[in-house]
Amino acid sequence: MNLDNWLSTNTFHHSQFRDLRALVDAKERQGVTISLCIPTLNEERTIGKEVVIFKSELMHRYPLIDEIAVIDSGSTDRTREVASSFGAEVFLAADILPHLDQKRGKGENLWKAIYQLNGDIIVYIDADIKNIHPRFVYGLVAPLISRSEIMYTKAFYDRPLAFSQGVRPSGGGRVTEILIRPLFSLFFPELTAIIQPLSGEYAVRREVLESIPFPIGYGVETSHLIDVYQRWGLRAFAQTDLDQRVHRNQETRSLGKMSFGILQTFLSRIQSLGVVPDLPALSTTLRQFQVHDQVFETVEFKIVEEERPPMNTVPEYREKRKALARAMENGE
Q: Domain range for residue 21?
């Protein structure tokens, strides 16, 4: 596929979808339902504002979203209480499909949201956005509503060159530019057209989400792109410029742990695809260093990027979807 053509036809700016009444009308004509998931872990400072804005603007003023749910990893602050007080449904990830082995991680929350939420489209929005705005949702769902062949819309935040005044570097964060973009350039060149592959904001059709596996940790976004690309190709993707995203930056050491998990997922994918079939057994221990009293000390982290299977292979999920379908047929 010609990448320049894809960039011109499948890259959007949120301002193209500012007519929210028209967007709601199109959604209702199609009979599509939309669920918003906000995965959380200790986000009491920002979660309330997100819930308030999305409920007031995208449920009450313009009924674009049908449900908002916070899926929490086990926050030790007041995240769940704040979210609930402002009207979000709040769930502990551990309470969803509780008979399964308990795992913690962002990917785990996203995976369990597929079971808990009912929408035909699920939008995932990170909980730490300080400049939250309705565009973070409508800018992502609009391409799915307007074009049936689009299945997965990713967000990016710096304007692409076509929208910029002058020429300046534009792309993802540190892990994207140092790790993911070089890996995609080597193994999946078409995926380099995704400006911010690790962005935590995206909207996806349920039939896609339920059919792909989910790493429980930081590798989830990378695996999504590879798996969707392998099955449906680049034409299934779109991306929307949301202008600026203000959030806290992580320390370099934390990004090292993130990269270690992502790299595990990436190597697992290229091995399963037969791209590099004979990888040796890989270590799951990351070694870093800190200085204490002028002595370099080793700090080791055990990071295992486990995966959940496609949700449509989980018996409880299949039964739930059948029950929902029967209820709809009966007009309940």
A: 3-329
